[in-house]
């Protein structure tokens, strides 16, 4: 069983006015004062509430999983459900969103709510500084380590705002909050010039990197030094790109490289295990195996016991669940796109078709004349496809082999014929959770940063600092791990949730990495490593780097953000829409504007601040 530092709804309430000395002794809400928390125990309770904000309680806004933005808006997934369901979500998907989009407003508010919780810890810890400074921490005093955790989350939540809305946004610190519990901080100076907050975020994360302990052996859900270092490198990486077209494009790549070298050489998880890739790709998304493989750098800790749904499914069990195939209802959002699935098709060398040739191959799954899904399993693909995506006629985790569309896809003309799999639990994940939708619940952590991220970021830093040939070693290291497992064939009943059993099949895994051939595969798989020639130039190396991030990190909420920081968002998303519209007519008129490398600051927030908050330049 995991030993977690976090989370319960009770402790999340602490920062909003409730208090408890133990789970059953709860004071009435409003019957406490700030002074009640200005002690070691009280500050610990507020810290727990701060961590609990990582559990997304607005599945539609997908605050930290970012699937609505990173995946659906980034072309890796279609919204699913029906076209009319959640029109603000549809507008993100089809590039018709405006400044009053409700999803954007919710994302903005929830990120700044996270900032509030971090500032509240800083404020109250300051009032209890003497007592906290006298208490021992893991490697420093308790005050310093509390402040380091809070500053990490203050930087983290501000960065979540910057990634989507650009860096000309309010930076709210504890001083502003002490002046007004709901501070109105402008994003322009007295002359009307934008105030960019990159450096303030960097200062927060640098403090965390310098002051957090290497590990938290007894409280393993806490953020440690190495997670702070990785996050700091990520911020500087974004700052170095063409992100926003205005406030990025400053070169911090040498710093990114240096920080990541420290993380790679010395980084470890809270159990003291040195960072490494998990043994297999599939292991990363299997409850009971995924949390402490050595690959988790920064996770949202999940638990299946209790009564709080946010602790067992980051995207919402009924939101992304199927309409009945697993024995429960679901709205059927979040279906992998045709473009993503075909991106896993490989050539005879086991390499992806980065020249766009995958778009000339018909969709691997189609409906026959009786509307029964038929999947062409003879086409060779990267084996990571069937970890990330559910395909008809292949085993769906330990549930069954989907063979009929009923119960799996709510409206195939709107979402397509592929199934969200990476984010769905196994049947075996069911535990003692006393909520309705147990079959959409899991204790598997949600990975915000994993070691594969670190390796690919480091490869990118090498490319940007003039060493593309060296970068190839790290890109291929990630790719080689994908050869360590593949989905095996099975038989089952696709109309029920009966178990599945092994079966023989004519399909194979052609492992060109290790020179072996696996049998009884669920479909034909092939994988090879990029040749040295792929890294002869910066341009070719970046092509491989970008492709590997697309397929390795698929459906983890990153794609749109990567396209934005690389400065290729309009070209890629317009190409995506042009391809996807042959299967889904909703993309027929979708056009992505190059200016939309940031999204508009929500109109509602601008109106509330009465001139203090100015729309970002790309949306004026």
What tags apply to this protein structure?
3-stranded mixed sheet; mainly alpha; 620 residues; 36% helix
Work out the helix count: 21
Distance between the termini: 52 Å
Report the uncertain regions. Answer: 1-29, 432-439, 494-498
Question: Which outline best applies?
Answer: globular
| Mean pLDDT level | 88
How are strands sequenced across the largest beta sheet? 14-13-15
Rg = 24 Å
Largest sheet: 3 strands, mixed
Q: Any overview of this molecule?
A:
With 620 residues, the protein is mainly α. Helix content is 36%, strand content 7%. The protein has a three-stranded mixed sheet with strand order 14-13-15, with no helix packed on it. A two-stranded antiparallel sheet has the order 1-2. It has a two-stranded antiparallel sheet with strand order 3-5. Helix 2 packs antiparallel against helix 5. It starts with 8 loop residues before the first helix and ends in a 12-residue tail after the last helix. The N terminus is likely disordered.
Summarize this entry quickly.
This protein has 620 residues and is mainly alpha-helical. The protein is 36% helix and 7% strand.
Give the helices and strands, then pairings.
Layout lengths: L8 H6 L5 E3 L2 E2 L13 H13 L14 H6 L4 E4 L6 H7 L8 H26 L1 H6 L7 H24 L8 H6 L18 H14 L13 H16 L12 H14 L29 E5 L16 H4 L12 E4 L1 H5 L22 E3 L5 E3 L9 H4 E2 L21 H4 L3 E2 L25 E5 H14 L3 H14 L8 E2 L9 E2 L6 E3 L4 E3 L6 E3 L10 H15 L6 H8 L2 H12 L22 H6 L12
Parallel strand pairs: 13-15
Antiparallel strand pairs: 1-2, 3-5, 4-10, 6-7, 8-9, 11-12, 13-14
């Amino acid at each position: 069983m995991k030993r977690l530092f976090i989370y319960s709804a009770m402790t999340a309430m602490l920062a909003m006015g409730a208090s408890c000395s133990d789970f059953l002794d709860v004071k009435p809400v409003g019957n406490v004062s700030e002074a009640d928390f200005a002690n070691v125990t009280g500050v610990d309770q507020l810290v727990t509430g701060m961590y609990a904000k990582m559990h997304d309680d607005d599945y539609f806004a997908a605050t930290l999983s970012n699937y609505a933005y990173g995946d659906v808006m980034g072309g890796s997934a279609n919204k699913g459900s029906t076209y009319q369901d959640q029109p603000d979500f549809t507008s993100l998907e089809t590039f018709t969103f405006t400044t009053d989009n409700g999803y954007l407003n919710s994302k903005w508010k929830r990120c700044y709510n996270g900032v509030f919780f971090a500032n509240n810890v800083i404020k109250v810890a300051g009032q209890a500084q003497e007592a906290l400074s006298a208490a021992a921490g893991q490697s420093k005093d308790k005050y310093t380590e509390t402040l380091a955790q809070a500053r990490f989350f203050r930087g983290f939540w501000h960065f979540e705002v910057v990634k989507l809305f650009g860096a000309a946004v309010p930076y709210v610190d504890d001083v502003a909050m002490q002046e007004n519990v709901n501070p109105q901080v402008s994003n322009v100076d007295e002359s009307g010039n934008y105030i960019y907050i990159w450096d303030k975020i960097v200062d927060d994360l640098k403090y965390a990197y310098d002051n957090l302990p290497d590990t938290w052996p007894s409280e393993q859900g806490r953020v440690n030094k190495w997670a702070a270092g990785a996050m700091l490198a990520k911020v500087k990486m974004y700052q170095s790109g063409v992100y926003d077209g205005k406030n990025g494009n400053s070169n911090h790549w040498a710093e990114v490289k240096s920080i990541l070298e420290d993380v790679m050489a010395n980084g470890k998880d809270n159990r003291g295990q040195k960072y490494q890739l998990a043994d297999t790709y599939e292991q990363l998304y299997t409850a009971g195996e995924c949390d402490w493989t050595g690959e988790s750098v920064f996770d949202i800790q999940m638990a299946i016991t209790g009564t709080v749904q946010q602790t067992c499914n980051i995207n919402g069990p009924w939101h992304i669940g199927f309409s009945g195939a697993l024995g429960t209802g679901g709205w059927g959002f979040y279906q992998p796109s045709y473009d993503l699935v075909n991106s896993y098709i490989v050539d005879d060398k086991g390499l992806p078709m980065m020249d766009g040739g995958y778009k000339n191959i018909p969709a691997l799954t189609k409906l026959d004349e009786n509307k029964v899904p038929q999947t062409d399993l003879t086409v060779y693909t990267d084996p990571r496809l069937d970890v990330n995506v559910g395909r008809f006629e292949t085993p769906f985790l330990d549930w069954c082999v989907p063979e009929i569309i009923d119960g799996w896809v709510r409206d195939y003309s709107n979402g397509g014929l592929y199934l969200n799999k990476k984010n769905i639990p196994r049947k075996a994940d069911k535990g003692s959770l006393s909520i309705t939708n147990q079959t959409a619940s899991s204790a598997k952590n949600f990975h915000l940063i994993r070691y594969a991220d670190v390796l690919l970021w480091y490869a990118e830093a090498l490319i940007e600092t003039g060493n593309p040939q060296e970068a190839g070693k790290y890109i291929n290291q990630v790719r080689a791990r994908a050869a360590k497992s593949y989905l095996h064939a099975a038989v089952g009943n696709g109309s029920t949730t009966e178990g599945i059993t092994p079966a023989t099949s004519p399909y194979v895994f052609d492992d060109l990495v290790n020179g072996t051939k696996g049998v009884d595969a669920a479909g034909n798989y092939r994988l090879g490593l990029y040749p040295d020639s792929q890294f002869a130039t910066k341009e070719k190396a970046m092509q491989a780097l970008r492709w590997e991030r697309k397929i390795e990190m698929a459906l983890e909420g990153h794609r749109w953000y990567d396209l934005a920081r690389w400065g290729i968002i309009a070209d890629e998303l317009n190409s995506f829409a042009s391809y996807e519209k042959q299967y889904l007519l909703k993309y027929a008129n979708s056009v992505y504007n190059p200016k939309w490398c940031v999204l508009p600051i929500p109109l509602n927030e601008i109106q509330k601040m009465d001139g203090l908050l100015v729309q970002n330049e790309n949306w004026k």
